[in-house]
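Entry 14. Structure prediction run on the chain below.
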Amino acid sequence: MKNTGIVAFGFGVPKTIRSNRLITTICSTKAYNLDATVYTQSDVCVGDAISVEYIKEEPGNPPPTLRVARGAVQWAIKKGFGELWVVAAEPHLWRCKRDMREAIKEAGARIALRVCALPFPNDGWFCSDSTQPRTRSWVKWWSRELILRLMPFFLYKRIAS
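Output returned:
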């Protein structure tokens, strides 16, 4: 039985933008190498030969990072995974790791987190053709991200749930 899963967080919308294509490539490569199953969002299109579970979401309304993390942890518990690899855009990675750690703690799970190295310049993740304004530029991302990082977690949980 496999003990490892991969959680891929999208960065912007739609699936065709450069950032999501890169996340897809990295996620798919890692899944092939580890023979692992993937948990992700609809804007990350993993290869056909890979077992994947997509979080439920409404079209045009991607789930918040914390909801993806909580779903991934429940999925990992159900599958019996003791290790999860996180794939995310570099600007988003800090929050993805924090939310995954918190979701693991909330669930009382024993799951080790690992991070896939993403060989891409930090500013290259932003795509002007994203339909999510916050992922179009560094300035738009960080004006929102700074608030989310500095916000007490109990408050963040209320708005991100």
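The longest strand covers residues 4-8.
Filed with the rest of this week's runs.
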